[in-house]
C-alpha cells in the first residue's frame, strides 16, 4: 500500500474507492481499514483534524 500511496498519511486519508484500487483490496478490507483508522483516530481526539 505504501508503494501506491507513498505515505502513511495518504493511506489513512484514502477513500474507500482509492483503497480498492490497490490490488487485493476489496470492499470488506477497504471498509475494515477505514473503520479501524477512524476508530483509532477518534480515540485520540483527532477526528476533526484528519479528513477521513
Identify the overall geometry. flat
End-to-end gap? 17 Å
Number of helices: 4
Name the average pLDDT. Answer: 86
Instruction: Spell the H/E element sequence.
Output: HHHH
Detail the poorly predicted runs: none
Largest sheet, strands/sense/barrel = none
Strand fraction: under 5%
Compute the gyration radius: what is it?
Answer: 11 Å
Q: Kindly name the structural category.
A: mainly alpha
Count of the domains = 1
Please give the number of β-strands. 0
Helix content: 55-70%
Compact description:
Helix content is 60%, strand content 0%. With 52 residues, it is an all-alpha fold. The model has no long low-confidence stretch (mean pLDDT 86).
Blueprint (SSEs and pairs):
Layout: H1 2-5, H2 8-12, H3 16-20, H4 27-43
How would you sum up this structure, described in words?
The chain is mostly helical and 52 residues long. It has one domain. 60% of the residues lie in helices and 0% in strands. The chain is built from four helices and no strands. The longest helix has 17 residues. It is flat. It starts with a helix and ends in a 9-residue tail after the last helix.
List key phrases describing it:
mainly alpha; flat; single chain; 60% helix; 52 residues
